[in-house]
Amino acid sequence: MRTVIPVLGAVCMLLVTAGAASRLQTGPARGEQIYTQYCASCHDQASPRIPPKAALQTLTASRILRTLDFGVMMNVAYPIRRDEREAVARFLGTAGEDAGPSPASFCRAGRQVMAGAPANWTGWSPTPANTRYQPAGAARLTAADVGRLELKWAFGFRGDVTAFAAPTLVNGTLFVGSASGAVQALDAASGCLHWVFQANGPVRAAPVAVSDGGRLVLVFGDQIGWVYALDARSGARVWMRRIEDHEATRLTGAPAVHDGILFMPAASWEETRAIDPQYPCCTFRGSVTALRVRDGSEVWKRYMVDAPVKTGATRVGTETFGPSGAGIWSTPTLDAARGVLYVTTGDNYSHPATLTSDAVVALDLKSGRIVWTQQTTPKDVYNSACGRRGANCPEDSGPDHDYGAAAMLLRADGRDVLVAGQKSGVVYGLDPDQRGRILWQARVGEGGVNGGVQWGMASDGRQIYASVSDVGRLPAAPDAPPLGDAQFDPTRGGGLTALRIADGGKVWFAAPRPCDPPRPGCSPAQPGALTAIPGVVFSGSMDGHLRAFSTDDGRVLWDVDTAKTFTTVNGVEGKGGSLDGAGPVVAGGMVFVNSGYPRFGGMPGNLLLAFGRPD
Ligand code: HEC
Fold first, then answer.
1. Atom 39 in ligand 1: which residue has the minimum CA distance?
2. Which residues line ligand 1 (CB under 6 A)?
3. How confident is the model at residue 480 (pLDDT cuts 50, 70, 90)?
4. Using CA of residue 437, residue 264, residue 450, residue 81, what is the dihedral sign?
5. Residue 188 gets which letter from DSSP?
6. Which domains does the chain have, with CATH numbers?
7. Model-level pTM?
C-alpha cells in the first residue's frame, strides 16, 4: 500500500519567510535569477566533472530539490532559502515524480506489519530518560554474541547520498525516514517494504510510536518544519501541520511524548543562510511546541529567546536582527516525577546574547514555562558566516559550542543526576533538584565547531559513555565553497570515554584509530550517537566502521567496515560511507545502522544495514 503526496505541490503553500519579503518573487524569472546567482558559474561551464544545464533540465524538479536539500549540492545550497530552492528546481526541472520503489521490493502477501516478536525501540531512546540503553530482554544480544554478528540484509535509499534517519522498531517492523522524505515501513527480518509515505521535506528524526485510542500512530518532524502523525499499520496520514513559519526551520530531534501530548523541539538552517552577506541575520528562535497526539492541536509553545527586533546593520549595510538562535536539536528528556522537560540548546546566531543559548533548560510540562536554565557557555553568538569572517559574522563571535545531544536523566548514590555533553568537549552532571546546579564536569575531548559530543551519549545505569567528533581538517583550498569539502586529517579526532555517574570520574578511554586505509572523506571522528546494551557500547565512526566496545574496559569486541558496496534487498545500488548522526538501534537480537554521511566532507552512502546472529 502506498500513500504519496506530490512533493512540490504540497510545499508550495509554505513559502512564508521572515524578514525578507522584498526578496520574494515567484515564477520562472525568480528561478532563473537564482540559477544565475548560485548555479551558472559551475553548470554553464564545459567540464567533464559537472553536468551541464541541459542535463539538469532532464531531471524532475523534485529530484533537483532533493539534491539541494541533502544531496550532492547541499554545501552549495546552504545560503539558499527554501522558496529559492523550490524556484530554481521548478525553473530547471521537469514536472512529475521520480520512479518509486520497484514492485519486487514490497513484502509478499502474508507478511503483516507489526506481527513480529515484541522487542521494540521507539523514538530516540527506548526510555524517556534518553539513555539510549536497550536492556537485556529487548536487546536479546549479549557481549558474547556481538563478535558473531553478520549482515542479514542491506536496504538502499534510492537517489540519496546520505543515510541519516533514526529508525524505530515496533514488533518486527522498522519505520525509517530518508533524505528524500520517503518514510518507509520495512520488515525487520528481511528488509521487504510494507508501505511508503512521502513527506514534504527530508526526514531524519526518529518516528515515535504512540498509541492513540485503538491504533498506533507514528509522530515525527521533517527538515522543513512539518510535523506528521501517521497510522503505523497503513502509513496513512492522520494529521500534519507546520509548527513554525520561519522558512529555515528544521525538525531534527524526535518529540518526547507524555500523556497524549507530544513535545516537539525546533532548530534551524538559519546559521548557514547567514553565509549570504545580503541575508538579514537573524530571526529564527529555538522552541518547544506541545501538540495533542490526537489531532495535532497546540497546547503550548515556548520560545527560547524573545521576539527579534532590528538591531542595526552589517559593514555591507544589510539589516541585522536579534535575539535569535538557541535552537533545540535533540529530543527533550522527560522527568514526569518533577513535572518538567529538559531541553539542550544551541548558540545565538546574532546579538544580543541570551541566557538560554548553550544551556540545559527545564520547562514546566503543563505550561511550557521556563523553570530554570543552566548556561554552560555564555555569550556564544555565532553563525556560519564566521568561518570566513563574512559580513554577517557577529562581533566578538563565540566558539559555536551548541548542545546537539539530549540530556540523560540518571541515578547514582541515591540521587538523580542530569547529564549533558556539549560540542565544547565537556560533559556536565547537573542537579535537577537545585535548578541544574553543576555537580561535576569532565572533559572528554578538545571541542570545536564540529567537535566534542555531538549526537549523543549512552548510559547503562552503571557508567556514562561519551564519544567525541573532534574532527581534524587539513587546510582548505582558497577557492573551496564555504563549509564542507575540506579534507579530513586521517589521524585526528574521535575517542570514547567511560565516566562514573556520581562524580564524572574517568573509568576508561578507548583511543581512536587512524584511518586504515586513509581514503577521501575518512576521519577517525566519532560524532554519531552511541547505543548501549548490557556489557556493550556501540559507536560508529566517520571512518565507516561500526564498533562494539566492552563496557568493562573499552576493548573492541566487534568491528565492521560499512564503507563499501553492498547488494541491497530492494535492488537499489548500495554503497556505505561515514557513520554519523543517529546511532545504531538494537532490538530482538538485531543491530540496525545507517551508513553514508557526506555533510561536512565525510564519505557519502545510502544504506540501512541489519546485522544479526548466525541462524
Ligand atoms: C561549485 C560548483 C557548483 C555549483 C555552484 C553548483 N553545482 Fe551542481 N554540481 C556540481 C558538480 C561538480 C556536480 C557533480 C557532482 C557529482 O556528481 O558528484 C553537480 C551536480 C548537480 C546535480 C546532480 C545531477 C545528477 O545527475 O544527479 C544537480 C541536480 C545540481 N548539481 C544542481 C545544482 C543547482 C540547482 C545549483 C545552484 C543552486 C548548483 N547545482 C550549483 C557543481 C556545482
1. 39
2. 38-39, 41-43, 49-51, 56, 59, 64, 67-68, 72-73, 76-77, 88, 481
3. low
4. negative
5. T
6. 2-92 (1.10.760), 137-166+411-416+448-474+485-615 (2.40.128.630)
7. 0.91
